[in-house]
Amino acid sequence: MDTVFIGKEYIEQVLACQPTPGKHQLEPLKTFAAEKKLPCGILEDSALLENEAEVHARVGDLWYCLQGEVEFICGGELTDSWVREGSGGNEIAGKGIKNGTTHVLKAGDWLWIPPGEPHTHTTPGTARLMIIKVPQV
Fold first, then answer.
1. Ranges assigned E (strand) in 3-109
2. Among 31, 34, 43, 69, which residue's CB has the most CB atoms within a 10 Å radius?
3. What are phi and psi of 30, to 5 degrees?
4. For the chain, how big is the Rg over CA atoms in Å?
5. Structural domain of 24
6. Among 130, 98, 100, 136, which residue's Cα sits nearest to residue 115?
7. Neighbouring residues of 29: CB distance < 8 A, sequence distance ≥ 6
8. Which Gene3D superfamilies match (predicted)?
9. Residue 83 belongs to some domain of the structure
10. For the chain, how many structural domains are there in total?
11. Is residue 59 a contact partner of residue 91, using CB atoms and an 8 Å limit?
12. Is residue 126 domain-resident?
C-alpha cells in the first residue's frame, strides 16, 4: 500500500455537495477511498430519525464531527439482534440499544467506539462525520 495524501481542498469539495435525506458516504471520497483501500470515509446523516444499532467484533470506529450535530448511543446491549449477512460473523446489527450512554457530537468533537461495543447514531438535522475504521490491535 502506498502513502496517500488527501488535501484540505479535496475535503472542502466533498463537503460542498447539498445534503440528501438518509445515511450515506459522500462522493467522490467514497470511491477514492475504496480504490486506494483507505479505512475511512465521510458519512452524511440527514433527517436520520431511526438507524440500526451495530457491533463490530474486530474493528473500532473513530468518529470526527465535521459539521452539524449528531446523537450517538454507545454501550449497553443490542435489542432484537442478528448477524449481518456477508460479515462472516464479525458484524451484529440490532433494532436498538438498551442501557446505553448518550453522547452528542458537535463540529470538532471526536468519539472512539472500541471493537465489541454496541452503537447507533441519529440526527433530525444534517451532520457530516469523518469515520476511520481501526482494526483491533
1. 22-25, 40-48, 53-56, 59-67, 69-74, 77-79, 82-83, 91-94, 96-98, 101-106
2. 43
3. -55, -50
4. 15
5. 8-135
6. 136
7. 6, 10, 11, 14, 41, 42
8. Jelly Rolls
9. yes
10. 1
11. no
12. yes
Q: What is the pLDDT of residue 14?
A: 94
The model's pLDDT over 37-75, given as tens digits with 9 standing for 90+, comes to: 999 999 999 999 999 999 999 999 999 999 999 999 999
Q: What pLDDT score does 1 carry? A: 73
Q: What is the pTM of this model?
A: 0.92
| CA nearest neighbour of 113 among 70, 82, 83, 49 | 70
Q: How is residue 36 annotated by DSSP?
A: H
CATH classification of the domain holding 52? 2.60.120.10
Is residue 63 one of the residues assigned to a domain? yes
Distance in angstroms (rounded) separating the CA atoms of residues 65 and 111: 9
Q: Which residues of the chain have pLDDT under 50?
A: none
The CA distance from 132 to 46, in Å, is 20
**What element of type H or E holds 32?**
helix 29-36
User: Which pLDDT value is given to residue 65?
Assistant: 98
Q: What angle do CA 61, 72, 46 make, to 5 degrees?
A: 95
Q: In the structure grid, which three cell numbers stand for residue 90, read together?
A: 464479525
What pLDDT does residue 136 have? 80
